[in-house]
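Field notebook, page 511. I keep forgetting to write these up properly, so this time I am using the form the group agreed on. The chain and the ligand, magnesium ion, are recorded exactly as supplied. Prediction of the bound pose follows.
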Amino acid sequence: MVENQAILRFAGATKRFGDFVAVDHVDFEVHNKEIVSIIGENGAGKSTFCKMLTGVYSIDDGEMYFEGKRVHYRNTTESMKAGISMVYQERNLVGMLTGAQNIVLGHEPGKRFISERQAYERAVEIRDKLRLTIPLDVPVEELGAGEQQLIEIMRAFYNDPKVLILDEPTASLGEGEVEPFLDFVKNVRNTMDIAIIFISHKIEELFAVSDRIAVLTDGRNMLTDHVENLTQIQVITAMLRTGKSYGRVPVAEKDFSALPVILDVEKAFYDGREHELNFQVHKGEVVGFYGLVGSGRTECAEMLFGLRKAEKSYTFNGSTITRCNTRSMIERGMIMTPEKRANGMFKALSLVDNICNLFLKSGLSGRGAGVVKRAKSKEFADRILSDNDVKYNFPGQAISSLSGGNIQKIIIGRSIAIENITLLILDEPTNGIDVGAKFEIYQKVRQLTDTKEEQKRIGVLFISSEIDELLNVCDKIYVFSDGNIIQGFERSHFNKQDILSVAVRGKRIDG
Ligand SMILES: Nc1ncnc2c1ncn2[C@@H]1O[C@H](COP(=O)(O)OP(=O)(O)O)[C@@H](O)[C@H]1O
Ligand SMILES: [Mg+2]
């Protein structure tokens, strides 16, 4: 074998979901005793790319080589046998089983039964090799997040992998747990024959742990280099989403000072610290929240909507809100759609059931039993589907059979159908949908704020990491950095360079 041959290499990796290209001709390689990090915004395609390596997803285009040989894995059993192990972003442990039981879970060869003692011995062997000290004989639900993470990693070592993929391994760790974990990963790289692919969106972390860094942006590989050749600003700049071309929506400049203020926020205390926010939303206004991943946009919205514990005092529709939960906020006229569409729907249920599940307490539900009244709900669902131009076959089909864009239209459509909604918060509503569907979402949003029926106009808070779409659709953009709003820009002062610069540097721009 050539000394410097990559252990794993992918040329032109491409993965599509319908019309949407999640991974777009990515070239990538990793060598033995090397940590390569993949960084990118949410939805950049990091997890999808790695799932192509392990055979979870089929490959639409591109050639993959393992130890110099062209390979094609149809499932994780095949990739694992070859020596590629992945610790997925989603936790994958059975809480009531012990660490040892979880480690052997799914690895027992079909015919042979592994005794409790054998399982324990095998797990201890892995633990010793990794120089860890976690107890393996207690149910994993009794362990902390960091320890659970390490149990998953031990499981990934069951087959002595040559390539280890860690998908956002630090996302679930507490503050004090990250550094020891990074030291552990480096130690594995130093002491074992292994190549490590490390996914994260936290830049400091990557500079601390990586030999090389690869940046993915909208499915494309924008930059790959050795860490000593890179600066943080270079990496952040490569992560910025430049946006793909889409139709412009017309936005008239309005005098908002004359319009009623729906939401007025100054500061709030959550996640253990104070956040300077200082922003307003008027009736008929689309307000954008821009910032890099981790800048605190979603956290702020969750605080407003009662999804995040906070000490706060802000004004919504004339009332001072200090305590709230999502139910009380919906009653007051606020609704938020989640960043991950999957969290806003029941995959296996029909369009009708998904449209009506927000309304179980309203007139659409059967008294007491909570059963949705069929005829009435069908009629209501039909209206939502047609009002929002959803493309579907029949209302009883499972929602998961629709494209991402059409699912998003349903999620937005049913949210604004709630009585008296005055503020709609959209968290990354266009992630993972094709440009045509994106444009329809922009039109819908503008229609909600600009409708001629003045009493029906609402305010929209639009969270996005795609600057071009915010410049397209918003009346005002607030830029987040490190949990605070650093600066606001009105449409007449929109300037892409200024806004990007505030987001990247976390400092106001004057003038
Ligand atoms: N199974 C799927 N079906 C349709 N779209 C998907 C699927 N998995 C991921 N996507 C979309 O592909 C894009 C990339 O997702 P992902 O790889 O999870 O991003 P990352 O891990 O970088 O946050 C996202 O826009 C996501 O919505
Ligand atoms: Mg991911």
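OBSERVATIONS:
- The domain at 8-239 is CATH 3.40.50.300 (Rossmann fold).
- Residues 365-371 have pLDDT under 50 and may be disordered.
FOLLOW-UP: compare against the apo run.
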